[in-house]
Amino acid sequence: MRIVLVVLFDDVQSLDVTGPMEVFAGAELYREGSYRIRTASLDGAPVRTSSGLTLVPDQALADVPTPHTLIVPGGRGTRAPDLRLTAWLRAHGPRAERLVSVCTGAILLAAAGLLDGRRATTHWAYCDKLARDHPAVEVDPDPIYVRDGEVSTSAGVTSGIDLALALVEEDLGRAAALTIARHLVVFLRRPGNQAQFSAQLAAQTAQREPLREVQQWITEHPEGDLSVESLAARARLSPRHFARAFQTETGMTPGRYVERVRLEHARRLLEDTADGIEEISRASGYGTPEGMRRAFVKTLGAAPAEYRRRFRPAHIN
To answer: Side-chain half-sphere of 303: how many Cα atoms within 13 Å?
Structure first.
């Protein structure tokens, strides 16, 4: 039996706690004896979450046995970490077979020195702070979770569920993880390297209606003529004015936005359909498989066929 220990503290984010716990509880129902889930706070006293919910831990951290999987959630309580908690993590974290953080729980792991020399992520809003305060940590702000050896870190809130499902799949197999995902009505298909934001969310929404309409049109027509000249005509602006206004209002150039939309569209088709590579390259606006391959290798480090092999669910043939 694998002991899963979730650390509790005042002002913890409740969903960071309950999301992964529900996944592991579902795994225990799927295969009895798989996991034993425990919660613990520094002194064993109840804690109040950032949303006002009170959680009663099973015991004090000083009394818990060494867990197989140690989960450190995030929340407002990580902004000024209790030195006793980081000291406990520094002493006991390395003993766990798997060390996991959810959201800003990565800040606690970093404060304990447990992320030094490792690649990690956290909620997008705190990636800069994590990198600034802990330069020994290689912070990657894009993925929803990062696995570096026995240490795994996840982005904001619901990504803790994605990471927990990945860990269950590693332990019990894909059928178990898929059953749990269906029960929780969540996707099992979100791989760790999926971006925290879609292209539309990564860019700011333009203030002017013609530019907003262009943003939406790009998303709906990745295969279309998305040159600056064509998009500028759609917005009824000169190409120079359009390019300048688009970057000012969205925070990225039209070309960069188009690249992200096309890559996102191609990834979705590779994961969710059995369409051929050539068909997907045309539908995503790359024109040729070679053009799509170059974009995938540059951004994701894997060719489309390899990406599909890794991340397409087994039931899609």
So the answer is: 8
Q: Which of 89, 103, 127, 237 is catalytic?
A: 103
Do residues 146 and 120 lie in contact, with contact meaning Cβ atoms separated by under 8 Å?
yes
Contacts of 298 (CB under 8 A, 6+ apart): none
Residue 296 belongs to what H/E stretch? helix 289-300
pLDDT greater than 70 at residue 314? no
Q: Which CATH number fits domain 2-184: 3.40.50.880, 3.90.1170.30, 3.40.50.300, 1.20.1250.20?
A: 3.40.50.880
Q: Checking DSSP bridges between strand 59-60 and strand 119-120, what pairing results, if any? A: unpaired
Q: What is the mean pLDDT of residues 20-47?
A: 96
CB 144 within 8 A of CB 123: no
* Whether the model pTM is above 0.70: no
Quick check: is 103 catalytic?
yes
Q: Pull the structure tokens for residue 138.
A: 């290689």
At 315, is the pLDDT very low, low, confident or very high (cuts 50, 70, 90)? very low
CATH of region 198-317:
1.10.10.60
Helix axes 228-235, 254-272, angle to 10 degrees: 100
Query: Which two tokens mark 96?
Result: 């766990």
